[in-house]
Amino acid sequence: MDRAQLDRSYVSQVENGQRNPSLLVIAKIASALNVEPADLLVPRGGR
Fold first, then answer.
1. Which of 3, 13, 33, 38 would give a disulfide with 19, using CB separation of 3.0 to 4.6 Å?
2. Does residue 32 lie within any of the structural domains?
3. Is residue 29 part of a domain?
4. How many other CB atoms sit within 10 Å of the CB of residue 28?
5. Structural domain of residue 20, as residue ranges?
6. Does some domain include residue 8?
7. Those residues with Cβ within 8 angstroms of residue 41's Cβ, 6 or more apart along the chain or in another chain
8. How many domains does the chain fold into?
9. How many Cβ atoms from other residues are within 10 Å of residue 29's Cβ?
10. pLDDT of 9-26, one tens digit each?
């Protein structure tokens, strides 16, 4: 994920629940995706 300046393998591990991202990493990913950080913390299937 170039826009977030994070390694692709790290992001994959976060997506697959193998790593727990810090709040800074959550903010970087949210910024790269143009969403609010809270949107990344909503359980799958909606609010």
1. 13
2. yes
3. yes
4. 19
5. 2-41
6. yes
7. 26
8. 1
9. 20
10. 999 999 999 999 999 999
